[in-house]
User: Which sequence fits this backbone?
């Protein structure tokens, strides 16, 4: 049995502060290798989407997704040439 509400109020305020402060946490900075992998994943998803749309006889959509896939690959190529990009052993 609680004799006072001080502990309960403290717990509620701590939870509210945690939710409020969560919006201000710093965003993690992507590493060159992680960004390269993310861009390759985007390019692969675009190619799969193009194949899927072509299979559904939606030629305009398929042509679009097929055309935009190389843009992610060129961005990945730029990341790969960065000095911070460590080569695999």
Assistant:
């Amino acid at each position: 049995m609680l004799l006072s509400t001080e502990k309960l109020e403290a717990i509620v305020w701590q939870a509210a502060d945690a939710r409020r402060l969560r919006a201000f946490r710093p965003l993690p900075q992507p590493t060159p290798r992680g960004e390269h992998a993310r861009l390759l994943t985007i390019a692969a998803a675009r190619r799969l989407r193009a194949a899927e749309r072509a299979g559904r006889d939606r030629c305009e959509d398929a042509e679009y997704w097929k055309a935009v896939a190389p843009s992610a690959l060129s961005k990945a190529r730029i990341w790969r040439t960065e000095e911070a990009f460590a080569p695999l052993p």
Notes: The chain has three helices and no strands. Residues 30-82 form one domain. Residues 39 and 74 are 9 Å apart (CA to CA).
